[in-house]
Predict the 3D structure of the following.
Amino acid sequence: MPVPDDFTLPTLGVNIDHVATLRQARRTVEPDPIAAAVLAELGGADGITVHLREDRRHIQERDVRLLRQMVRTHLNLEMAATPDMVTLACDLRPAYVTLVPERREEVTTEGGLDVAAQVEALTQVVETLQDQRIPVSLFIDPHPVQVKAAAQTGAQWIELHTGRYADARDEAGRRTELSHLETACYLAREAGLRVNAGHGLTYWNVLPVAQMAGMEELNIGHSIISRAVLVGLERAVREMKQAMRGTL
């Protein structure tokens, strides 16, 4: 169903980690995430997102340095809140940083940061980055406690983890998880936080999240890159923008 005429569509950040995953599978030079970022922007991406993991399993430091020079929209660097990564981010100076939890044994990020359990430590990281004029977003589960804790750190943004919504097995479960996201988004806005969302969003489930009042950006990777293998990256990005509008 098309969205109302007065609705402001969230922007789309395209996560290109899986392009690097394919490259690293053979430890070669292709496919190049830099080329992928260019094609994503040509397809209508409003930003490029990469997760520089401590184990460097896909995106490499070289990628981020080149993307910082080449990206014409904005570069969102996802990373763990560790001293080494903070130092690197201050050197690289992306458009903004999203702090995420990280475990070596996970295939992908499995949930949001437990900000409530580490408010003091995260506040120090946020202050360090934002003192360098690097805005910070905290990747959190859509829970009021985590929203409140995120606001206490001084971060400018949150990114709501949409994994539970994406993984819901039936319509009732999806409605419940969507309600949690809507409540968290409202509480965040009331607390002065700006709101993004992402994880597990696809062409088939993105519309209700894109229609959420106050939602500013959706970060989507796996679904777009999966489609791009079959139809090309520019088309895959264009079609995700259409899905966000309800016109696909």
About this structure: The mean pLDDT is 94. Residues 11-245 form a domain with the TIM Barrel fold (CATH 3.20.20.70).
